[in-house]
Amino acid sequence: MNFVHSAKVEDLKARVSAFMEAHVIPAEADYHRFVDSGKDRWAIPPVMEELKARARAEGLWNLWCPYPEHGAGLNNCDYAPLAEIMGRSIIGPEVFNCNAPDTGNMEVLIKYGTEAQKAKWLTPLLAGEIRSAFCMTEPAVASSDATNVEASILRDGDHYVINGRKWWATGAPDPRCRILIVMGKSDPAAERHRQQSMILVPFDTPGVTLVRPLNVFGADDAPHGHAEILFDNVRVPAENLLLGEGRGFEIAQGRLGPGRIHHCMRLIGAAQRALELMCDRVSARRAFGKPLADQGVVRQQIALSLCEIEQARLLALAAADKMDRLGNKDARDLIGMAKVVIPQMAQTVIDRAIQVHGAAGVSQDTFLAAAFAYARTIRIADGPDEVHQDALARQMLKARAAA
Amino acid sequence: MNFVHSAKVEDLKARVSAFMEAHVIPAEADYHRFVDSGKDRWAIPPVMEELKARARAEGLWNLWCPYPEHGAGLNNCDYAPLAEIMGRSIIGPEVFNCNAPDTGNMEVLIKYGTEAQKAKWLTPLLAGEIRSAFCMTEPAVASSDATNVEASILRDGDHYVINGRKWWATGAPDPRCRILIVMGKSDPAAERHRQQSMILVPFDTPGVTLVRPLNVFGADDAPHGHAEILFDNVRVPAENLLLGEGRGFEIAQGRLGPGRIHHCMRLIGAAQRALELMCDRVSARRAFGKPLADQGVVRQQIALSLCEIEQARLLALAAADKMDRLGNKDARDLIGMAKVVIPQMAQTVIDRAIQVHGAAGVSQDTFLAAAFAYARTIRIADGPDEVHQDALARQMLKARAAA
Amino acid sequence: MNFVHSAKVEDLKARVSAFMEAHVIPAEADYHRFVDSGKDRWAIPPVMEELKARARAEGLWNLWCPYPEHGAGLNNCDYAPLAEIMGRSIIGPEVFNCNAPDTGNMEVLIKYGTEAQKAKWLTPLLAGEIRSAFCMTEPAVASSDATNVEASILRDGDHYVINGRKWWATGAPDPRCRILIVMGKSDPAAERHRQQSMILVPFDTPGVTLVRPLNVFGADDAPHGHAEILFDNVRVPAENLLLGEGRGFEIAQGRLGPGRIHHCMRLIGAAQRALELMCDRVSARRAFGKPLADQGVVRQQIALSLCEIEQARLLALAAADKMDRLGNKDARDLIGMAKVVIPQMAQTVIDRAIQVHGAAGVSQDTFLAAAFAYARTIRIADGPDEVHQDALARQMLKARAAA
Amino acid sequence: MNFVHSAKVEDLKARVSAFMEAHVIPAEADYHRFVDSGKDRWAIPPVMEELKARARAEGLWNLWCPYPEHGAGLNNCDYAPLAEIMGRSIIGPEVFNCNAPDTGNMEVLIKYGTEAQKAKWLTPLLAGEIRSAFCMTEPAVASSDATNVEASILRDGDHYVINGRKWWATGAPDPRCRILIVMGKSDPAAERHRQQSMILVPFDTPGVTLVRPLNVFGADDAPHGHAEILFDNVRVPAENLLLGEGRGFEIAQGRLGPGRIHHCMRLIGAAQRALELMCDRVSARRAFGKPLADQGVVRQQIALSLCEIEQARLLALAAADKMDRLGNKDARDLIGMAKVVIPQMAQTVIDRAIQVHGAAGVSQDTFLAAAFAYARTIRIADGPDEVHQDALARQMLKARAAA
């Protein structure tokens, strides 16, 4: 047992951290000013492409990608502290081409894509030239149960025809978004976890309509955002199918394991930055004749946050390590724990940071409100807390009964 | 001791409730569609003025106002259930001319205004013809300690000159907003609680600039919103001063007692509606082969919410009753308790309701996200939770030491 | 609506409070010293009988009893503040003949007993001459579901024969305990809630064995205590049956409503005293150069406790008022809420008080450890928290569905 | 980074675990029966000495001891999982000679003792032949601030004279207890952290009186227990002083780091066992027609417990690893976090396990009540939660200010 990162990882940590401090954090205000003041909220601020180019030039690119032929080739445990550092800014992960949902979509293409699919979509995604979205959640049914999916993906000769309504397709409003991965039912009569398929749908296919952007606590998260998308008799070539008919659930499982833990890693960084902002604020701000830092209640909140973040970090690392050693399936217990614990932890820590910032904390003047919304949504996305809790308990009860 | 409202109050409850169900709740979608789709987010949706006219015609107008010559003449305990019912919609209170900050500002004018001030500003406010804002909080200092205020209100012959930067002036971006009540220091050398004054500043006075609207978790709360306002050598006639130099703190105290409890009452209504939405959602939504309502964890959250709301309601009523019997000053313990307990309760209950709504819960499709933001900000506004907690404990420690 | 007690109740509050301060609190140490130092932990300290005689002489006797012919004739709402004051001491309720389980047992006899049963058992109970126990819970089955009861009460000619093992018969080890009310199944083939009967079993009936006293967190709660009792072919005359065969569940329901709310009232008093002890301790105790009361964290805990106690008190009063107005059945929602909220509140508040007392807080030197154990057990007794939560949620879901 | 124990540690884990299952857990009932039924609660159950002999014979002895010449020579990180396993039983640690306060006292002797002191006291302690106690806490002052200590240790020729009253000397009532380590002030005029000394006091020295055993929630924890001890002009030779005059605080710091983390490790084991008992109980117990395990609320509590235990375990390991790499002083942040988090976690988890056990959970029939009391007291012992929280926050604020 050993709680020290390798020299290689420590070096990457230092470089990513220096990049964040020197380039990303200072660019946040510009980025948001561009979005808020521009005519078009859905245009990409130029600073983002500049940051991406710089990061790529420095070799800080596709760090998430465990496949050496495609990216950094780091395992999950080594990537964890880097993802955490990127997560300190809402715009951080994209700078390093490490943002959701593109990472998950690239992983799907690497693991399950044909060479033709890879050439067409993976290559520009890895290059950060285009963006993608993942269309799974539907407004009409509870997506906590993935088998509820109602969209249809039906074979018709050399094509598949897709019908359905999806929402919370994050990144779909991004003007660079070109490709959608869509989950739907190809065979409602099949066994419950074999009814679903996944298919690649170019965004410009006729019948695909971006109905509206969705807000998170009133924020549209432009210029990436989240979209409601209507698929109305959308026809794509049969070769766009991923892996095979009836294997959609299998792909979803393969995609979600790393996806969940990546969100957790980023949220640790968001919580850590919130805590640091909290410390700085209470040292600088005075009320009733003394700095807020002299209030014991404030210090207790700092201490609790410190403890909760450190535990969350260890849990994410332990989950990552188990994924690296035993595979995602055997690590599902620790992944589940991380998913249950870390978004809630981040929400709580950021809420405390908001409180000491007063009205500034809920405003656009700090990163806290956006970070809070991010944490809050991850408690719902990729399976709500309650579903993961239930799965964890059932596993333990089953194991005890078998013992 | 008696936990039953009078027949008169029960009748008013029934009428306000019927009005809400018949007219206000159904108008919410229209209202927001107008704001979101219009060219100008800061225009008032026509439906609001229609609703106001109807409510006024039905005699459901200025129910908040305890002074019979100006309004309904109800005491706090009688008004509490009505404010709760209005609080079930974000747009509810304004319909009945019972919305913050106008109620607080009207109260200030009634209690501390001259006849001239009343004629000019109170009359149109009571008629719902104009709106007002309250300028106390400042970005540069911790407003949890009201004595930190740095804006200046300095006598210059027959005028006062106002300089300073305020923010979180709720309602200031509203196009109907005509008058600001501004708090600032008129004598920095005076005793700590006698340095401040309050003054009436017509919004169109030269030197008053609305710098920008402020967001709450990304929402601009248009068309009322919250503004940052710059006062740059703003000159107003000396007769605009309220009550007298050095009496600003006294007015603030007089204004905040009822203001706090009104917010609490409305938040109880918001929480109650969230709980009802939660019940309806879990009865209708299915996952893993059964309604969410069949999940024990969901039922536990309903039960906890029910208990917390009921206790909050009783606490608000007890505070209101004590205000009615003994005055706001003697009721400060129960007002403080309500202020500590109820916004946090509402945040918690609404957060649970969001969770069972999944992604819809954070979106613009339910009232939950806006209600959450409202509850969250009230934990900061009018004194953050921690300041009220501290005051409560000090009172108790002092009382025990004296016993 | 009116949050003020009547003059009559205020007078009783003052008298009970003065009696507690003058006689009961000062006797606590003597009482426990007698139990701990004596040869026999199960002998009654003489001071208890002295206190009882004095309370009875002062007319502070059977205050719990709503039936004027048997006791004070107060309704639940009027009794609530008195029960709270008695609950400030573990030995308080017995002094006024208001302690569980005797109050519940007396209520059963008053409501369901024959004249002969009353003459034999109710009269000496009301006089405080004998004590009683209630035998419902069984070690082998989950008593949260009352229909699980396995003990048998079978008719045999003019007698009933009782077999079974009961535990947590509070008060059974008390040397003055003469009579047991036993619940068991008289007809396992009947409808689920008609299988049970209740019967009076004199403690000295052959076949009744006190197997052992049970500990609560290591404390035996001598000299009352809690017993495991074996019923081995115990024969009692048929006229000992209460109300009728198959009506045990009905009696249990009738007994438990007031019983639950009485426990809640007492626990509010226990929590209130814990909070007062906490205040006094932190004012007197110094660490790091200042009183603990100067630590903001301590003050926050005081404030939170104050808020929680006040809300609990209001909830208990509201429940009591509803019982008085509409009957126990219609008040089951508020009784359920009180049962869910108040024991947990008391546990939390007392836990905080323990913490500021340091090691003294868990020891025999304060009333905190015993009060903690009392609160903790009431979260289990008369239906665990979770069962009441579930019932509350089901009621609300049903009401919404019907609306 | 690597979350796998070495083969050596895995082997020891397997052996300690097998020993616990085969010998210790089955002996618990006998052990407690002996204490409870015997004439003398303070006699040692023979089974304990048998278990010790067997453990020693199997080489499972002094595993806590990092000094190879005295014990197993394991570092903290390697010892952690073993201490956890021992902590699964209240009687577990002693079996392996790994129980507090003897481990801490042995550590003091090893690190600070003279050869003569070691020969006299360390040797029999390592052999498990005698027991020891640590006398630091005093009833009259807040021991959360160690400088409050009021006992005096004053030089008088070749002797020191000790006066003072101590309490919570754990293990002092044990009939095998021979030696006390006493902390007191040797020079009240010295710098604040140099006023204290520590000295060895044989229990049979004239003037040492065991005043009374102390209860924890009513339990006397016989036959080890906790004592109040009076030192009345107790004279011991000057060579009994440890390390040197004025170095008591330094020794306390050196002793408490490992002591705190050892308690945390044991409490993880206690919580883990509680969770397992909870699982087994809810699988076996039925209410309302199905096993408790079918209740979603119960499963949620299992899942939360699982997450909390896993995070606590990782935190303890991380702290242990930092102690091993950088020393106890540099690891004080992680030790502090572990001390804040883990006892509270254990209290919470065990409380949940109690709840599903119903009345059995608070009784003497499971290990839950004793485990709860253990967890609760450790939130107070060796510095209450609040003091460690405050220290953590101050460190972070200082580090941020320096950055």
Automatic annotation (TrEMBL), chains A, B, C, D:
One of its GO terms (biological process) is fatty acid beta-oxidation using acyl-CoA dehydrogenase. Keywords: FAD, Flavoprotein, Oxidoreductase. The keyword Protease does not apply. Its cofactor is FAD. The keyword Oxidoreductase applies. GO terms for molecular function: acyl-CoA dehydrogenase activity; flavin adenine dinucleotide binding. One of its GO terms (cellular component) is cytoplasm. Residues 133-234 form the Acyl-CoA oxidase/dehydrogenase middle domain. Residues 246-397 form the Acyl-CoA dehydrogenase/oxidase C-terminal domain. It comes from the Bacteria. Pfam families: Acyl-CoA_dh_1, Acyl-CoA_dh_M, Acyl-CoA_dh_N. Residues 10-129 form the Acyl-CoA dehydrogenase/oxidase N-terminal domain. Homodimer. Belongs to the acyl-CoA dehydrogenase family. This is Acyl-CoA dehydrogenase family protein.
